[in-house]
């Protein structure tokens, strides 16, 4: 009986469409690996498609994922409707759910070294309570103004990304991530000190391009600091 249920659940991850979430997570994570975002099993990506959440397993090489590795959760009940045997769902799941609860269609978690370095630079320069702030950089125009607002930030707008403290276990970041989301309702990203960053977007395309824009800005900001150049006027 349970085997019949397992086979029925497999339909949820079998598709020839490259943009089906089970396929898309695999190709995205393989790309993100080449950027140093999800190496050594760290980081990951989750997609909400209609009433379902697609989640990769925990502790596996994210660049080697297969569609049949995916967990599928019913968003309303938060119950798993597909659970691959032996594997555990990503420890990032409650953090991804926090983004989906706020309307995101995709959430990306990276261990980018630029994100980690920025959290250390901000702490050294401005203290533990400060967020990362930067302005007058063209790529800021790749980030939306905020949830429910029309359009993206402009060249003269200031991009602010809150920073939360790391915890021993990924799932224990959830309450501080949610607090940061409440305190900065316009943000589409939260940095995690000495760990990485969570970036989300209304859909997969927006989450990916926003994450690319932010990583570009974080790398640039580290290089600016090395050259003694200020992030804000
Ligand atoms: C070396 S990775 C440590 C765990 C972590 O920070 C992470 O993002 C991976 O989570 P997952 O459970 O998806 O493997
Ligand atoms: Zn992580």
Give a verbal description of the structure.
- The structure is a single chain.
- The chain has 233 residues and is α+β, with helices and mostly antiparallel strands.
- The protein has two domains: 1-90, Class II aldolase/adducin N-terminal domain (L-fuculose-1-phosphate Aldolase, 3-Layer(aba) Sandwich); 93-232, Class II aldolase/adducin N-terminal domain (L-fuculose-1-phosphate Aldolase, 3-Layer(aba) Sandwich), CATH 3.40.225.
- It is 34% helix and 18% strand.
- The protein contains six helices and ten strands.
- An eight-stranded mixed sheet has the order 4-3-2-1-5-10-9-8, sandwiched between helices.
- Strand 1 and strand 2 form a beta hairpin.
- The mean pLDDT is 97.
- The site of zinc ion has 7 residues, from loops.
Quick structural summary:
Its EC number is 4.2.1.109. With 233 residues, the chain is α+β, with helices and mostly antiparallel strands.
Question: Approximately how much helix is present in the residues?
Answer: 25-40%
What is the mean pLDDT?
A: 97
Strand content: 15-25%
* Total count of helical runs of at least 4 residues: 6
Question: How many strands, what sense, and barrel or not for the largest sheet?
Answer: 8 strands, mixed
CATH class of the largest domain: Alpha Beta
What is the radius of gyration? 18 Å
Structural class by secondary-structure content: alpha+beta
**Architecture of the largest domain, CATH level 2?**
3-Layer(aba) Sandwich
Number of strands: 10
């Amino acid at each position: 009986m349970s085997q019949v249920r397992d086979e029925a659940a497999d339909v949820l991850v079998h598709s020839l469409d490259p943009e089906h979430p089970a396929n898309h997570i695999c190709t995205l994570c393989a790309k993100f690996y080449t950027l140093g975002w999800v190496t050594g099993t760290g980081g990951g990506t989750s997609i909400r498609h209609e009433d379902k959440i697609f989640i990769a397993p925990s502790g596996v090489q994210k660049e080697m994922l297969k569609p049949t590795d995916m967990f599928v959760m019913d968003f309303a009940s938060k119950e798993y409707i597909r659970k691959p045997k032996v594997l555990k769902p990503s420890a990032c799941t409650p953090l991804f759910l926090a983004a989906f609860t706020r309307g995101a269609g995709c959430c990306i978690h990276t261990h980018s070294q630029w994100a980690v370095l920025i959290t250390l630079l901000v702490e050294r320069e401005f203290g533990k309570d400060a967020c990362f702030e930067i302005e007058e950089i063209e790529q800021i125009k790749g980030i939306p103004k905020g949830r429910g607002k029309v359009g993206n930030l402009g060249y003269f707008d200031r991009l602010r990304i809150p920073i939360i403290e790391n915890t021993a276990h990924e799932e224990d970041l959830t309450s501080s991530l949610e607090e940061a989301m409440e305190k900065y309702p316009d943000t589409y990203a939260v940095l995690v000190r000495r760990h990485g960053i969570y970036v989300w977007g209304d859909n997969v395309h927006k989450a990916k391009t926003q994450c690319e824009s932010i990583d570009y800005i974080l790398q640039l900001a580290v290089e600016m600091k090395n050259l003694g150049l200020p992030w804000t006027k």
